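Single Protein Entry

Contents — chain, fold
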Amino acid sequence: MIQGLGVDAPEVRLGKDLEGLDGLVIPGGESTTIVQLLDIFDMRNTVVGLVQEGMPVWGTCAGMIVLADRLTDHRPEPLHLIDIEVSRNAFGSQVDSFEADLEVDGIDGTPFRAVFIRAPVVTTVGRGVNVLARLPDGRPVAVRENDMLATAFHPELTGDSRVHELFLNIVTGVKEPQPS
């Protein structure tokens, strides 16, 4: 999706691949595996350091779990970057996957059709965290803290690039218009 928006998006597999990046996307998948690979390839401290130095980061689904400060589960050990608590697989198994139309702060137009697959949900939001989208029952599913973005859903599965554009605006420092 990011490449489709005309932006170079190299894969990061090793620590050396982090050099020179303007932003980082931690994708969906299996959060335990992602964290294990970060640790096996000695990338945890590098990623944390880059984000703490201001590199924008976006975690989708499993990436949200990886970025969280706290989890309701015992594993994996997250990166402790966004001041949120997250519950993994909050909606059940693969067969409980669903779609929902969401109003997302920071994107214009019609509601965003969000795809939730074995998705997490935010259970606690810290003071500096802005909730960008909630399910109809009020549970947060998209958050932002400074230049860190996390979504419980998979925007790349929709063909709608607006959440990707939001992240690219964070990366390039484009400020949202303020109400007058």
Summary: Helices lie at 31-40, 44-52, 62-67, 162-172. Residues 162-172 form the longest helix (11 residues). The CA atoms of residues 88 and 97 lie 13 Å apart. DSSP finds four helices and ten strands in the chain.
